[in-house]
Write a structure and sequence with these properties.
Layout (H helix, E strand, L loop, with lengths): L6 H24 L1 H8 L10 H27 L3 H26 L1 H5 L6 H21 L18
Helix pairs in contact: 1-2, 1-3, 1-6, 2-3, 4-6
Length: 156
């Protein structure tokens, strides 16, 4: 496991987020109809168009890919610049993910937390939590990065 992350970011980025992404990949892959219809539950259900079906499965594959990338990058590097670039890229992605959800649901439905289904909690609630943890980590509010493990030489 990467040794440079302070304890809270280490737990969130190396355990919680990858497991959430891998678990989140199962929905669109195993139940694409439910997954698609849960995105905008206020709309009438309909049989999926082939394009909706394939996009759901591809999105599940991307969740799986992101989860595996997180495990791979954060468990194999001790380079702060690699960790920071990875976290920064996800920070930018969080903004786009929430913006797309708010745009699609509409501001009123997005702000009505009491009416959120599980999908909205994942798309908005969990993503905003991850965004806040990333922001706090990058600002140094959750502790400083640790040094490299003794005995590991820097590769040239």
């Amino acid at each position: 496991m990467t040794t440079i992350l302070p304890p809270i970011p280490r737990f969130v980025f190396t355990i919680f987020e990858p497991l959430s992404l891998i678990a989140g990949a199962l929905g669109p892959i195993l139940a694409p109809v439910y997954f698609v219809q849960s995105q905008l539950p206020h709309l009438a259900a309909h049989p999926l168009f082939p394009s909706e079906h394939v996009l759901a499965i591809q999105l599940g594959n991307l969740y799986l890919l992101l989860g595996l990338l997180g495990i791979g990058v954060l468990n194999t590097t001790s380079e702060p610049s690699v960790v920071h670039a990875y976290v920064w890229a996800l920070w930018v992605g969080d903004i786009g993910h929430v913006a797309a959800t708010v745009y699609s649901l509409g501001v009123d439905r997005s702000m009505d937390v009491g009416s959120w289904n599980g999908m909205a909690w994942g798309n908005i609630g969990v993503t905003c939590m991850l965004f806040l943890v990333r922001s706090a980590y990058m600002a140094g509010l959750l502790g400083q990065d640790r040094g490299k493990v003794k005995g590991k030489a820097k590769k040239v």
